[in-house]
Specification:
mainly alpha; Arc Repressor Mutant, subunit A; Tetracycline Repressor, domain 2; elongated
Amino acid sequence: MVRSDARDNRERILAAARAALTEDGHTSMNQVAQRAGVGAGTLYRNFPTREALLLGVYQDEVARIVELVPELLATMPAVDALRRWTTELVAAMRRKHGLGDALSAGAHQAISERTHGPVLAAITALLDAGKAAGAVRTDADPGDFLQFTGALWRADAGPEDRSPRMLALLLDGLRPAADR
């Protein structure tokens, strides 16, 4: 069992790293430790390398997004929940993409292996809720939807972010034929 202070330190490190790396992808490990209010030893005990820290930040982000599904489905219609969740996923994927130069090919593979299943399960839950409500076509496939999200996070996020318009087209295509 992890002590509460150790768990709190890890959470502070991840939060500080996420904020620092969003501002500057070249933030040093020492800068992250200072920002988190922990010593270098605590940082390196939790994350022995920069790559381990980057992986931790990304995994934490994916876990947060996956954990949103039940709350979204409890508070809004399934298609609205899918839209909101996908928007969160796209933002996280863009942040991960920004870390690309800092991660080795092995790290990219590790990210995919650790996050693919949970993300696919979240999409499945959202699509199944939409199907049960009659708002999503019955042949909608979670794997296909995940592939389409790749186009969304690669879309130009400049002054006129195209991803919301593209997501609207995707969601329109998920409606049952009688509703299109």
